[in-house]
Design a protein that fits this description.
Radius of gyration: 29 Å
Structural class: alpha/beta
InterPro entries: CER1-like_C, Fatty_acid_hydroxylase, NAD(P)-bd_dom_sf, Sterol_Desaturase_Related
Number of domains: 3
Strand content: 5-15%
Subcellular location: Membrane
Shape: elongated
Family: Belongs to the sterol desaturase family.
Distance between the termini: 35 Å
Pfam families: CER1-like_C, FA_hydroxylase
Low-confidence stretches: none
Largest sheet: 6 strands, mixed
Strand order of the largest sheet: 5-4-1-3-2-13
Membrane topology: Multi-pass membrane protein
């Protein structure tokens, strides 16, 4: 049975919960449109304050997940996984509750409309009431919530988040946020009742309150230890992220709201607080743990740039799709793209742990269209080369190149860097061997004929050579007889007849297995017979135009079940699924292979890589 006041009345409303702001918004709009002025001004203030509080949490989320800035200041090194993100999905429920309670207060006390904009006495009274009432009230309430029934049925929800995050600050039960509303409200109500209240006091106090709550849950140490060295007394009047993090790991200590003074008075101050804070703050100037594997990705387009974890965590935790309400942010994304083009270097965007190995994703600050600008290619190669050399310098074992970062025309599938730097210790991997393996293992064993576009590309060549050795007839679409014959000569003599050059899509009008390595239009798709399945390794994927046909996804694999700290989706991939070239690098690292995987695909290694992937628990998505 659910404990009283532990659940939220609107927890099943989804996005429709925001309609609860409707009466406030309607009242403001009605006054604005049909009356000379907004009479119920506090309705507007409440909406603005809620938006401001949401923005504070969003900005703290962006900062704490901007790993290239914060990775060496992180307190707990684990990542926030999908389970925690889902639990904290409705972290903003408390904003609705506080808005409704604030509106009730405005109805009960209409004199609030007469508050002045500024009154310095109010800030002094507010601070006094906060220290003498709110801090001890919160401290003792918090201690009681760590006992027996209250913890089991209420506060354990907040502590279910193993890695604190700014959104964790809002992740609690209805009862806890009712009490928190009292804690926030007492200093403001007291100042107003004494005649010292002001609008700026309400805005300032609520904003500062949320700012400090987010700071404590950010998992990033931002308070320099030198401050406490110069002003030792200050450590009793301001907590730090490290201080509150200890409360989440050792729950019998550090109960205070913002002031450790009350923990000291209550004998619940963790004696390791200052030492750990100094250690983390001092170590922030040092390099952190070296990843074992790096996946070197790149931007796709401006819209997908808002899929980054440090932009919107919730969106990044689900497969990418275009959201109409984000389109107004495109000008901002365009400006950021220009800034990155001019100044940015490769940066860390996400990480996870797999069997004790740290795997990171770095991003080359370039978008898909830039890879096809002739004047930009040199700069892109320079960024990729810098990333490889940096990985080599710090001791990364394997670096895998994503999609366009290994473009044949750009750098020969990574060959350029390996030849230029023959003494590289880091293994450079394009991952295309596993990509080919995934595509080939999707093809039914009884298929006798396939139609292949992009047939003379790196992947097309490997797929054609592999299939012809399985005695599958491959219709290779290419206008270049020279390139076709070069590939044909690579096949065993008794298999060469299975490779057939075709120059038109009409040649495949009776073939129901199409492998698409070059983008095809709906008109070109129309030549496929009904019931055709389109396998593909083309970026972006082709349009699913034919309703009488089926379309495969890009080659991908699901990471093993024991992956830890994974909380973002890789572009359009499902949760826990990565592109095959990413998975190929993972296998290379787990196997401890010491060769580079660049240039042409070694057809003889396709089965070897596939079996290694399965051995380590990676699974094809199609088998799920």
């Amino acid at each position: 049975m659910v404990a009283p006041l532990s659940a939220w009345s609107w927890e099943n409303f989804g996005v429709f919960k925001y309609l609860l702001y409707g009466p406030l918004a309607a009242k403001v709009l009605y006054s604005w449109i049909y009356e000379d002025s907004i009479k119920d001004l506090w309705c507007l203030h409440i909406l603005v304050i809620c938006a401001l509080r949401g923005l504070i949490h969003q900005l703290w989320n962006s900062y704490s997940t901007t790993l290239f800035l914060t990775r060496n200041r992180r307190i707990k090194q684990e990542g926030v996984d999908f389970k925690q993100i889902d639990r904290e999905w409705d972290w903003d429920n408390f904003l609705i509750l506080h808005a409704l309670l604030a509106y009730m207060a405005c109805l009960i006390f209409p004199s609030l409309d007469d508050l002045p904009l500024w009154n310095p006495k109010g800030f002094i009274t507010l601070l006094f009431l906060h220290v003498t009432v709110s801090e001890p009230l919160y401290y003792w309430a918090h201690r009681y919530f760590h006992e027996g029934y209250l913890f089991t049925h209420y506060h354990s929800l907040h502590h279910s988040s193993s890695v604190t995050h700014p959104y964790t600050a809002g992740h609690a039960t209805f009862l806890e946020h009712l009490i928190l509303c009292v804690v926030i409200g007492i200093p403001m109500a007291g100042s107003i009742m004494m005649g010292y209240g002001s609008t700026s006091m309400v805005y300032g106090y609520v904003s500062a309150f949320d700012f400090l709550r987010c700071l404590g849950h950010s998992n990033v140490e931002v308070v320099p230890h030198e401050v406490f060295n110069k002003l030792p007394f200050l450590k009793y009047f301001l907590y730090t992220p490290t201080y509150h993090s200890l409360h989440h790991t050792e729950m019998g200590t550090n109960f205070c709201l913002f002031m450790p003074l009350f923990d000291a008075m209550g004998n619940t101050l963790n004696r390791n607080s200052w030492h750990l804070h100094k250690k983390i703050s001092s170590d922030s100037a040092k390099n952190g743990r070296v990843p074992d594997f790096v996946f070197l990705a790149h931007g796709v387009d401006l819209t997908s740039s808002m899929h980054a974890p440090f932009v919107f965590r919730s969106f990044a935790s689900v497969p990418f799709s275009t959201r109409i309400f984000l389109l107004p942010l495109l000008p901002v994304a365009f400006l950021v793209m220009l800034i990155m083009w001019a100044w940015s270097k490769t940066f860390l965007i996400s990480f996870y742990n797999l069997r004790g190995h740290l795997h990171q994703t770095w991003v080359v600050p370039r978008f898909g269209f830039q890879y096809f600008l002739p004047f930009a290619m040199e700069g892109i190669n320079k960024r990729i080369e810098e990333a490889i050399l940096r990985a080599d310098r710090i001791g990364v074992k394997v670096i895998s190149l994503a999609a366009l970062n290994k473009n044949e025309a750009l750098n020969g599938g990574g060959t350029l860097f390996v030849e230029k730097h023959p003494d590289l210790k880091v293994r450079v991997v394009h991952g295309n061997t596993l990509t080919a393996a995934v595509i080939l293992n999707e093809i039914p064993k009884d298929v006798e004929e396939v139609f292949l576009t992009g047939a003379t590309s790196k992947l097309g060549r490997a797929i054609a050579l592999y299939l012809c050795q399985r005695r599958v007839r491959v219709l290779m679409l290419t206008l270049s007889t020279e390139r076709f014959q070069k590939i044909q000569r690579e096949a065993p003599a008794d298999c060469q007849n299975y490779l057939v050059q075709v120059t038109k899509y009409q040649a495949a009008q009776n073939c129901k297995t199409w492998i698409v390595g070059k983008w095809i239009t709906p008109r070109q798709q129309s030549w496929a017979p009904s019931g055709t399945h389109f396998h593909q390794f083309v970026v972006p994927p082709i349009l699913a135009f034919r309703r009488d046909c089926t379309y495969g996804d890009l080659a991908a694999m699901r990471l093993p079940d024991d992956v830890e700290g994974l909380g973002s989706c890789e572009y359009t991939m499902e949760r826990g699924v990565v592109h095959a070239c990413h998975a190929g690098g993972v296998v290379h690292q787990l196997e401890g292979w010491t060769h580079h995987e660049v240039g042409a695909i070694d057809v003889d290694r396709i089965d070897i890589v596939w079996k290694a992937a399965l051995k380590h628990g990676l699974r094809p998505v199609s088998s799920m």
